[in-house]
Amino acid sequence: MQGQLSEIDIRSILQLIELGQRTGELYVEAYPSHTTSDRPYPTVALPQAWLVFLLNGQIVYAGTTTGQLGRLRDHLHRYGLETALDTTNASSIEPFNSPEYGHLWELLERHTLTPEQGRTILHNMVCETLFDLLSLHQGTFIFKLSSALSPQLKRFQSGPLVASITQQIQEWKQFYPHIQSPHQCPFVSEQAALEADSLAADIKPLMQWIDGKTSIQQMARYLDCTVVALAKRIYPYTRQGIIQFPHAATLPSKPPELEPWDEARVPRVVCIDDGVAIREAVEHILVEQGYEATSIGNPLRALSLLFQLQPDLILCDIAMPELEGYELCAMLRQASDFRQTPIVMLTGKDGFIDRVKARMAGATDYLTKPFGATELLTLVEKYVGLGNPQRAEPDQLLSDAIQGDPELETGVSPM
């Protein structure tokens, strides 16, 4: 199931998933912010992409695709545990789930958090995500059946949560246009700061965070309240000009390490293939030639990681469990981050139909299996080449990989 949010809203999508008792992942991407004629205020930028994990129609976890831990750290603040993440290592869970979810489980396993605290944090994180998603009117979505997220801390019926969050969104509208988004960072005007002693008692406890750097959402996490409840406290002061908003705080669509100052880095290539031997050989060959290479075996995991890695070139197998390469390619082409990224499909030896379907899905090119190191490097250099005339001869690596895979020996793409 996939489509546009202009055709079906998030509430209806979750209802369909709940009615069908489906298990899988819902991926949602927002369109870039813009001003619309029916809204006199500029649309505030939100996080750009989200993932919701469901089991039999119930929500297990929901968050953004950034892979950052700031939200979890904020929730730990009210328990005085914000520094606990500095010593966590969620490696046993992280490869399969969201890093945030993995670190939450690590804290539970270490008994840093009690189960009740963990469930409270998880509930609040799911509600935050639904607030963003239910506020969207433009964007794309795809729901893919997959195995359940594991381990599970708690499951939430989407119906009651959606009804509650929808009511909060309706209440939120009373703050327009003075407060537009929970992601905005308020600050106290200079004059009001000088007269801080005269401020009302209900606003004084918030003064430490109303600094233009801390969002309404973050303050709500610290105080364990809803963004609506917090906005009600500061709304009278925004109308008086005592509390102001310099701009809407946005979550970066790219991780900090991929911002423009890092553009001088070597080309980054991601290979998505469920064949271990192929992944290892491709990664080794490209690294040896000076490229930055990452291989991913699970296509659903790849969908999340690609938004973090922001590769310059994507190599994608066609026949993979859970999500075909065609589908993955088509989904990436719908995302603004990957509309111009070269995507090369790895096809079978006689895969004429594969190549046609790959083009229809938006693939840039294809590479026929089995292939040698020279073919691989020629194609990679065609799109993101380093222009390095000195090449090693690592064909034996791919040869060994092919010998270890009987399907590749016949020139057939792994199924």
Primary descriptors:
single chain, 415 residues, alpha/beta, Rossmann fold, 5-stranded antiparallel beta sheet, 5-stranded parallel beta sheet, 15 helices, 12 strands, 14% strand, elongated, disordered C terminus
Structural notes for this entry:
By secondary structure, this protein is an alpha/beta fold. 38% of the residues lie in helices and 14% in strands. The chain contains 15 helices and twelve strands. Strand 10 (313-317), helix 11 and strand 11 form a beta-alpha-beta unit.
Can you lay out the helices and strands and say which pair or pack?
Blueprint (H helix, E strand, L loop, with lengths): L1 E3 L5 H10 L4 E7 L18 E7 L2 E7 L5 H8 L21 H11 L5 H20 L4 E7 L12 H15 L14 E2 L1 H5 L21 H8 L3 H13 L3 E2 L23 E5 L3 H13 L3 E5 L2 H11 L3 E5 L7 H10 L8 E5 L4 H10 L3 E4 L4 H12 L10 H9 L2 H4 L6
Parallel strand pairs: 8-9, 8-10, 10-11, 11-12
Antiparallel strand pairs: 1-5, 2-3, 2-5, 3-4, 6-7
Low-confidence stretches: 33-45, 248-263, 388-397, 399-415
Number of helices: 15
Radius of gyration based on Cα positions = 24 Å
Number of DSSP-assigned strands: 12
Content-based structural category:
alpha/beta
The largest sheet has its strands arranged as 1-5-2-3-4
Mean pLDDT: 78
Number of structural units classed as domains: 3
Separation of the first and last Cα atoms: 23 Å
User: What is the helix/strand order?
Assistant: EHEEEHHHEHEHHHEEHEHEHEHEHHH
What level of helicity do the residues show? 25-40%
Into which percentage range does the β-strand content fall? 5-15%
What would you call the shape? elongated
| Sheet having the most strands | 5 strands, antiparallel
